[in-house]
């Protein structure tokens, strides 16, 4: 849990901030891919919308001058005036329609972009190694990349609006420069201080949020354990609610204080800078009024200039402010692209060897050692043994001895830190990793209780066969899961687990029968069962074993168990201690040897283990 203060990361340098703008290019590629038609239409509509402000001001100027002209001589409205007013009206309607069409396109395109990015995120996360998932920095990256899905939709419309405003800006400034270039200078005085203020505070906000990611994850985690189906039982029994609440309050009040300080500063500075901005605007206004009173400008000119100056000020200010928000948004994009940059290390070779079917010789551990990332001690070291094709091997050892790690290495969830594992004489790295995993079925002791239908919970063993009801039901009957499922109100269609409406929870042993069903469903050449019967009652365990030889018939199998009644069914038993091989042999051989296995076996036989 949290140890360090909520200081946030140090400020980004200017180059780092604006350098992040280069991320906009790949971002626009993503938008383009989401829908080329919508992207183009959006661009065209915004160009048209960008020209309208200038056109409207020019017409307004002509209208005023026409009115002044008429009112001196005649009392009737001229056709020319009607046409001018009509044109302005038409432009106003067009502008409104364009705004709505643009908003619609933005939101549709935004949805498409958010969906495709989320899919890409899921896809990429699925390809990464287990190592990544054990790294807290990875989770921070993933979290930042995920959090910004909505922000990115906003970023897209902001960049497009920026382009649209740039078109309006170019038109209006041209008019202003033609009249008096000094007005542009006043305009800059009006907007630059406000922009610098905004830029500064955006940077501070980003740094604060960026630095708070680990704590925000902790906050989310506390919220989750405070109220979830999986934790409710222990939270109540151990009365953890106050403990969790106080941790939540402590963290959230730190967030509040840090955010409050920044928000207050931002408001104060924002107010002062806005006053400077108004002073610049009114300076220009007074200048124009004096020139009009002098008679150097017509009333139409006054309307045009005051209007265009005001619009330019608003435009520039929003563009500059938006620019720093865009720069900030691009920094978040960097988090997303950083995440996509993470590359898995466990990959298939360019020309993989065909996976043997059937396996001829089996696996061989050749001086295998493995250390988990960030761990000091070796989980497995100097491991030499073979797992012959068709053999049933049991792994025995105390908690933490390295049994599960060995299985993870065999299925290439990790690669050995030293030594190699051979399959039919070749390093398992020479085979296609997906084919290798497809040839191996592992049911872990901490198997996942998917909050899905009972049928799908078994089908995950071979998900491409999820429509094959016969195979699913057959697997369920072999693993004894069928008797559990038939009692459920909706049978195989019943959602199990408590997370969703109508979900029905199962007991630990019932879940285990479902998980065992996955092994039958998988029907792989190599079967690995990690504590397959730990939660089963005596009768169910016995029945599972009666079927076990059928399940593993003709297959290579690895069985991890602390129960010696299970272990003795294996052809050979490997006793592992502190990551090293201690003994290997058949049940009878090891008993005769009177080593560790015999000691543990006799202890259990006498009821001590
Ligand atoms: N993801 C991990 N990161 C760091 N160390 C780990 C990780 N998983 C396991 N270990 C460590 O590696 C060693 C071997 O663990 P492993 O899970 O293989 O033991 P095991 O024999 O399966 O134990 P058990 O009988 O309790 O299931 C232990 O010391 C454990 O703490």
Automatic annotation (TrEMBL):
Keywords: ATP-binding, Cell membrane, Membrane, Nucleotide-binding, Transmembrane, Transmembrane helix, Transport. Pfam families: ABC_tran. The chain crosses the membrane at residues 43-60, 81-103, 166-196, 267-290. Residues 363-603 form the ABC transporter domain. It comes from the Bacteria. SUPFAM superfamilies: ABC transporter transmembrane region, P-loop containing nucleoside triphosphate hydrolases. It is a multi-pass membrane protein. InterPro entries: AAA+_ATPase, ABC1_TM_dom, ABC1_TM_sf, ABC_transporter-like_ATP-bd, ABC_transporter-like_CS, P-loop_NTPase, Type_1_exporter. It is found in: Cell membrane. GO terms for molecular function: ABC-type oligopeptide transporter activity; ATP binding; ATP hydrolysis activity. GO terms for cellular component: plasma membrane. Gene3D superfamilies: ABC transporter type 1, transmembrane domain (1.20.1560.10), P-loop containing nucleotide triphosphate hydrolases (3.40.50.300). SMART domains: AAA. This is ABC transporter ATP-binding protein. It comes from Sporocytophaga myxococcoides. The lineage of its organism: Bacteria, Pseudomonadati, Bacteroidota, Cytophagia, Cytophagales.
């Amino acid at each position: 849990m949290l140890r360090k203060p909520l200081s946030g990361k140090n400020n980004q340098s200017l180059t780092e901030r604006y350098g992040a703008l280069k991320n906009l290019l790949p971002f626009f590629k993503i938008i383009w891919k989401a829908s080329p038609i919508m992207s183009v239409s959006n661009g065209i509509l915004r160009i048209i919308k960008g020209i309208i402000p200038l056109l409207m001001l020019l017409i307004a100027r002509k209208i005023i001058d026409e009115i002044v002209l008429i009112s001196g001589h005649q009392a009737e409205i001229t056709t020319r005036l009607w046409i001018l007013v009509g044109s302005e009206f038409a432009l106003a309607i067009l502008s409104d329609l364009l705004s709505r069409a643009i908003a619609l396109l933005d939101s549709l395109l935004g949805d498409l972009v958010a969906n495709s990015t989320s899919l890409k995120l899921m896809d990429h996360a699925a390809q990464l190694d287990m190592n990544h998932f054990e790294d807290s920095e990875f989770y921070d990256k993933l979290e930042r990349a995920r959090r910004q899905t909505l922000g990115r939709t906003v970023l897209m419309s902001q960049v497009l609006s920026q382009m649209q405003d740039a078109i309006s800006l170019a038109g209006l400034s041209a008019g202003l420069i033609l009249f008096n270039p000094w007005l542009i200078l006043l305009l800059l005085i009006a907007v630059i201080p406000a922009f610098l203020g905004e830029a500064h505070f955006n940077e501070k906000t980003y740094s604060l949020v960026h630095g708070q990611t680990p704590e925000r994850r902790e906050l989310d985690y506390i919220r989750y354990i405070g109220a979830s189906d999986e934790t409710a039982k222990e939270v109540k029994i151990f009365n953890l609610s106050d403990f969790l609440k106080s941790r939540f309050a402590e963290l959230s009040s730190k967030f509040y204080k840090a955010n409050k300080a920044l928000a207050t500063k931002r408001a104060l500075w924002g107010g002062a800078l806005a006053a400077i901005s108004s002073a610049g605007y009114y300076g220009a206004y007074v200048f124009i009024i004096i020139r009009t009173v002098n008679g150097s400008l017509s009333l139409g000119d006054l309307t045009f200039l005051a209007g265009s100056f005001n619009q330019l000020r608003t435009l520039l200010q929003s563009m500059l402010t938006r620019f720093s928000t865009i720069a900030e948004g691009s920094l978040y994009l960097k988090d997303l692209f950083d995440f996509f940059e993470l590359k898995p290390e466990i990959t298939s070779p360019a020309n993989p060897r065909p996976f043997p079917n059937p396996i001829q010789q089996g696996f061989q551990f050749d001086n295998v050692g493995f250390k988990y990332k960030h761990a000091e001690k070796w989980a497995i070291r100097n491991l030499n043994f073979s797992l012959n094709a068709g053999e049933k091997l049991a792994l025995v050892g105390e908690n933490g001895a390295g049994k599960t790690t060995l299985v993870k290495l065999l299925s290439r969830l990790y690669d050995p830190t030293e030594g190699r594992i051979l399959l039919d004489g070749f390093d398992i790295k020479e085979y296609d990793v997906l084919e290798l995993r497809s040839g191996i079925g592992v049911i872990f002791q901490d198997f996942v209780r998917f909050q899905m239908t009972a049928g799908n919970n078994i089908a995950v063993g071979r998900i491409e066969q999820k429509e094959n009801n016969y195979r699913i039901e057959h697997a369920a009957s072999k693993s004894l899961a069928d008797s559990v499922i038939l009692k459920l109100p909706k049978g195989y269609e019943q959602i199990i687990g408590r997370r969703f409406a109508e979900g029905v929870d199962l007991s630990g042993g019932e879940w285990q029968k479902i998980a065992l069903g996955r092994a039958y469903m998988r029907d792989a050449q190599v079967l690995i069962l990690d504590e397959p019967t730990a939660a089963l009652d005596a009768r169910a365990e016995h029945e599972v074993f009666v079927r076990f030889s059928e399940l593993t018939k003709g297959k290579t199998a690895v069985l991890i168990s602390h129960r010696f009644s299970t272990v003795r069914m294996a052809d050979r038993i490997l006793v592992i201690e502190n990551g090293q091989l201690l003994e290997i042999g058949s049940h009878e051989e090891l008993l005769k040897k009177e080593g560790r296995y015999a000691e543990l076996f006799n202890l259990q036989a006498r009821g001590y283990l």
